[in-house]
User: Fold this.
Amino acid sequence: MACDIYPAVFTVDENVRFLRKVRRIAEEHRTHIILFDADRLAGRAHVEAALRHAWRSWAGGEPIANSIEMEALLYAAGTRQCQVAASFGVHPGENRSYIAVCPSAPGVRDRLAGLVTFVDEEREEAIGPAKRARLVDLFGITPEEVAVVGEERFRDLVLERVALLDVYR
Assistant:
C-alpha cells in the first residue's frame, strides 16, 4: 500500500473531537489517516515499518485490531495492547507527529492543513540522549543488545520490536 507520510505539529485540546475531524477528512477522500507520535518513534523508518506490517496483517485477514489505524499503532508500539498503542497516537497538548495517508489521496494534505502545520523534515532525525532513553524504556532495549549491535544501529533495535509483534501473535 502506497502511503504519503508527512511530519507535522499541532495542538490537541480534546482527542475525540480532533480525531473526529481527521476521520471526516479521511472518509471524504476514501483513505485512512494515521497519526503517530514522533516523540515515541525512531524516525520515519519506524512509521514505514509499522505501516508495512499493519497492511500485511490486515490483507492477510488476521489483524489484531478492528481498524487499520489501530493496527498500525499496535505495530508502532510493538505490542498487542491497544491501550499502550493508543499512546503512540495523538495526545492532548502539543503534538509532533508523522501523519500517514494510506492510500495516497489528492487533496488530503490541503484539508489537513486546516488542523495541522506541516514541517519540512526530510533528513532522518537524530536520536538524542533524552529520546534514546525514552525508546529504551518504551521498547525494553537492554544495554547488552546495544553492545552487540553497536550504538550506530540503535534504531534497528527499535525496528526489530515492530517486526517481533508478528512472532508474539
User: Anything to note?
Assistant: Residues 39 and 96 are 7 Å apart (CA to CA). Helices lie at 15-28, 44-59, 68-77, 82-86, 108-112, 129-139, 143-149, 154-168.
